[in-house]
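Usage example:
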Amino acid sequence: MERRQFLCTAAAGVGAALVGPSATWAAEPKRERRHEAAGMVYTRFGRTNLNVSRIVHGSLHTNRQRIPLLARLYEGGVNWFDTAWKYGGGRSEEAFGEYFSHDGRRDRVFISTKVDVRPQLRAGQGVFDAVMKQLETCLKRLRMDGVDMLMLHGCTTLVDWIDNPEWLRAADACRKQGKARFIGFSEHAKPAECLAKAAACGRYDLGMVAFSLAKATWGSLGRADVASMRPALDAARKADMGVIAIKTAVEADRLVKDHDDPRLHAEGYSPQQLCYRYILDVPGVHAVACGMTNMTHVEQNLKVPGIRLAAADAHRLERRARQAGLCGFCGTCLDACPNGIAVQDIIRLTAYFRNGDRRTARAAYAALPAPERADACRGCGTCEAACPGHLPIRQRLEEAHHALA
Amino acid sequence: MPSPDTRQPAPTPHTTIPRGGSPYPPRANARVPRPALSGRRIGGRCRSLSSRARRSLPAKGGPAEGSRRGFFPPVLLALALLLAGCTSEPGGESPTLLPEARGPFRRVTPVTRYAPGTLHEYINGQAPYVVSFGMQGLATADYAKADEPVTTVDVYDMGSPENAFALFRSNADLEGSPVDVGTEGAGAGGRVEFWQDRYYVVVSNPLAADPAIVRDVAARLAADLPAPGPMPAYLGWLPADGRVAKSEQYLPEAYLGYEPLARAVTARFDAGQGETPAAVTLFACRYDSADAAAAALAEFKKQVAAQSTIAPLDADSLKAIQAGAEAPGAGAPGATGGLPASASGDAEAPGAGTPGSASASSTGDAASQVDGFIADKFVMGQLVIFRSGTFLAGILPYSGSPASRDLLARLAKHVKAL
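Running the assembly step on the lines above writes:
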């Protein structure tokens, strides 16, 4: 992959790059410190008071075969490793157990995992038991007595799950039993809604939210641009919650694809690094979780905290994101359309079509009621006025109809 | 059976893998017919659809309505014709694998289908990993019997049994919780996963009062799949003797997290009596040419050297590899290293004609040309790796004991014979 310079320079020292939410706290409580290394930047993670690395290892693809990645990240100063009951059918947690159970490493890092009780939440039964049982399984795989942070996995489907009483009761029980020190949630598509809900709930220490410059969160239904996130981040900050961003580098390559800005051409940092750096600079975001599957990813991401992104370059990156015309599938257009066109779905079906799934995309389009199809658009432009990405939606609807009808 | 290497399992190991997406070029065979994939694309399980669209699902849409004002300008019409001209629909659908009913179980949702480019709609960030194993399509639906909670059936068309095996072994806890379904199955509680023929299947029902329901659904589906065939030919890259049963894996990319180590077959082996640990891992990575293998080894060495100390092969390990490479039968015609018969005719299989192995065996000085090194402080224990023709092979951890030297010799002999 081509690496790009973005007129950003590596920080000469760790202290120079120590920016972020913790800087706003005049008299903060004593931080709980673990393994730290020169070159990495650490921050107080909200009311947990954990002094976490701003780069966190997201271990969706981790297994025993990739333990060297854990070792290199640890060596590079990463001190928070995140996993989940569901990741790789448990292989991710097993790899953690294999690596961190030796040489006292467990006590030198923060470990988080997540329980996935969406079926039980959906059914409205069995939530408490499932949480307790899953956490037991997690701890067995991890070879640990407890984790530092326990999260409810994937709250996106129903934001109301955030204050589900059975989940919260189970979370309290886990905490009382010493199996989890802090409680949080993760979500994949409605970061603002979930974060605001959790802050209002008052029971959460942290939130893991999909938040990217490109707003192109996979399968996203929510609004994830910086402006939309600001109130939720403010609410989280008032609640002193820790906030970690995920899916931050989604579509990063498209941000710089076919650009003609000469300042983006010089050798330097990758689009992914710039996306991570950009989100780390958003007030209220403490850390980003990076999925890494090889050493190249690791080495690049270890450098992210040391990057200093000048304001002008941040603005340039934002402009590139807008120009890239990425649809975040936020649904704003759907809500705005006065004629009930299924805008969001039509654009998605176009993506399916382009990805080669032509027959099913056309079948799905044909299944839409006629008044919701693209050719029912009256061309009023309300959707475009509402679109946070200022996308040419009318044009896309026309193209979609020609492709799908 | 196609050669494992004809399915584009991995990028050229010494090239940079692009981030943020699949490292694979577009597949030439991405549009092969998929037996399981019938039904509509959108359904109640597609999280990303609006509620309005979901409500509309039962309605059978007719042909597209006529155009409204402002539509169909000539340029767009030309675009449409161009797109339509590119369309090549798969034909010859086989009987569905997700029928409306199977035994006492009735399908309670439409069949939802996903392509590699849309899989993230269903499994989110796990999608690139699954796609990296060659996934070509997913069909999913919910089944229920009477008032039981629904059982979700996910049928992944992996394009080949080799791919299905690889993904299954990567995800499943086969040794810890085997289940007798499919070619191989595993699972616990309300979840069963198995592979059979080119399909990797996950059947789950977290709310099931009796997990037997899940196994029942899985078994009925397996009965409708093509009969199990032989195990993937690439398992023959490692010696058969001493293998820990069901410990084999195939990693298409970045074995141990290092990009140069691609197309890796690994398995655990009995380390020998009194050895600690009791089992060690042998691995073999296959490349398109001896030069590619040599380049991958050099790059791997460079990356490891940045993090660990490395040294040339010591006398004992060198001797072991030499012994294997020079052993009677090594490189002999017909020595396929346990490859199934179907793979013996693999046109791309490395053999005597490859530069490295040919020159070594013909000159008889393979011993002096052993290309490899030891990483004595590798995080998972001392690592020994060497090149033999188009293969990189090694052992992890390597203790240097007589038993481990014997394993190394057997590995060298075996790889040499491929």
